[in-house]
Amino acid sequence: MIGRRRVISAAVGLFLAAAVAACGCDDGGGGGGAGGAASPGPMTPSTTAPAATTTSTTTGPATPASAIEPASQPATSLMNINGHVTVFPSARLRLETDGQNVVALLYSDDPREALKRNYTGNSFYLRMVLDVSDPARLADATWNYTAPSGSDREADSPYGVFLGGRKIALQPFKVSARFKVEGDTTTAMVAGNFQVLDDTPGRGPAQVLPVSAEMPVQIDAER
C-alpha cells in the first residue's frame, strides 16, 4: 500500500514537472510559494506574478482577445500544486444564485481541443457556494469547503483540478477562496488541500496535495 502511494506521488510529480518545463517557469520561484501554501489556512498564494508575462498559451490569438477582454487578463493562469508552478488556460468566473447564496463557478477557458480524448492540457472547474446573496458583494464573499468525512469521492465529478487531460484529478478536500475586486479587475484567490483521485480497489487513504493560486478572472456577462 505504501509502495502504491509512492507510485501515485511520483506520477503527480512527473505531470507537474512536465507542465513546468513546458511553460519555462522557474520552479525556484514557485517552490517558495508552495511552502506557504502547505497549510490551507492563510490565503498566501505567491505563484501567479509571472502570469502576465507567460508567453505560452492554450487559448485563442492574443490580439482578438485583447479587443474584448480587459487588458490585465493574462492568456494563462498559474497554480502552485505541491511545490510546482503549473500552467492552465486563463480563468473565468460565472456568478449565479440559488435563491439564497451566490454560486461562483471558477473554471479554465479551455480550448476546443479539450473535448478530444487525446487532449493533454490542464484544466479546472470549481463550484463555490459563497456566503453572500448579492453578486455585487463579491469582494466580501468567502468560500470555505471541507469534504464530508468518510464519504467516497465521485470518480465522475466535474469539479476539481485536472492534469494531463483527465489523467490526474484533484478534488477539493479542505479549501478556501476569496475575491479581490479593484476597478475592472477581479482576482480569485484559492488555497487549501486537494485529494488525488484514485479509485483502484484496495487503495489506502487518499493522498492530499497543497494547492494555491491567485488568478485574474474574466467575469461572464449576464445574458
Describe this structure in words.
The chain is α+β, with helices and mostly antiparallel strands and about 220 residues long. The protein has one domain. Helices cover about 20% and strands about 35% of the residues. The chain is built from three helices and ten strands. The chain has helices spanning about 1-25, 25-35, 60-70, and strands at about 75-80, 85-90, 90-95, 100-110, 125-130, 140-145, 160-165, 170-180, 185-195, 210-220. It is globular and about 45 Å long. The model is unreliable at about 1-10 and about 15-70 (pLDDT under 50).
Could you outline the blueprint of secondary structure elements for this entry?
Layout: H1 2-23, H2 27-37, H3 62-68, E1 76-81, E2 84-89, E3 91-97, E4 102-108, E5 123-129, E6 142-146, E7 160-163, E8 168-182, E9 185-196, E10 208-219
Parallel strand pairs: 3-10
Antiparallel strand pairs: 1-2, 1-10, 3-4, 4-5, 5-7, 6-8, 7-8, 8-9, 9-10
The whole-number mean of residue pLDDT values reads 73
Please write the string of helix (H) and strand (E) elements. HHHEEEEEEEEEE
Strand line-up of the largest beta sheet: 3-4-5-7-8-9-10
Number of helices: 3
Largest sheet, strands/sense/barrel: 7 strands, mixed, barrel
C-alpha termini separation: 51 Å
Shape: globular
Number of domains: 1
Structural class: alpha+beta
What does the radius of gyration come to? 17 Å
Task: Give the helix proportion (percent range).
Answer: 10-25%
Q: What is the beta-strand fraction? A: 35-45%
Number of strands: 10
The poorly predicted ranges are: 1-8, 17-71
